[in-house]
Amino acid sequence: MAQTRRQFRQYIRQQRNQLDETIQMHAAAQLLSQCQTLPELAISQHIALYLSNDGEIDTQPLIELLWSQGKQVYLPVLHPFSPGHLLFLHYHQHTPMMTNKYGIFEPKLDQTQVKPIEQLDLVFTPLVGFDSQGHRLGMGGGYYDRSLARWFATGVGPTPIGLAHDCQHVERLPTEEWDVPLPKIVTPSRIWHWEFKH
């Protein structure tokens, strides 16, 4: 199972990294159009996003749209004392940034800027791959699975929505019991939607 998941990650990341700049820009514009139709986005004020990395679909246009609408944007930061967990910090044009241990930009830790996840309305999650049942394959650290575990168990907390390129879809992924499936995943060509009973 672990080997297969690793192979899936390798294969999908390879596909994603082969997308050239023009395709990436076009995909980001299409993703933005799809996201603008989300009813969840219209009613949300406090929204967690992430900065694209490793060939991920570009989230910058979406972040800038939210800023222009006066919405509050938050980014994940690796928890300094609780390994495997995330904090979400308020993010604006002048937020001081740093590189975390994975080489990903994140806001410099400032406790006054932390928003408890229960107070977020929406969490856009990165993913390596997803399947036709709504299962999400992350990078393997389990950060988002832990962050979203309460929502998955009870339905309480911010709604998670995945963002991905179309090439990140596979028919079926190998899953583990701690994996948190997503109710919606947005790609440039469509919005995938599943019903989950909590």
UniProtKB/TrEMBL annotation:
It comes from the Bacteria. The keyword Ion transport does not apply. Its EC number is 6.3.3.2. Gene3D superfamilies: NagB/RpiA/CoA transferase-like. Keywords: ATP-binding, Ligase, Magnesium, Metal-binding, Nucleotide-binding. InterPro entries: FTHF_cligase, FTHF_cligase-like_sf, NagB/RpiA_transferase-like. GO terms for molecular function: 5-formyltetrahydrofolate cyclo-ligase activity. Its cofactor is Mg(2+). The keyword NADP does not apply. It catalyses: (6S)-5-formyl-5,6,7,8-tetrahydrofolate + ATP = (6R)-5,10-methenyltetrahydrofolate + ADP + phosphate. It holds the Pfam family 5-FTHF_cyc-lig. Belongs to the 5-formyltetrahydrofolate cyclo-ligase family. This is 5-formyltetrahydrofolate cyclo-ligase.
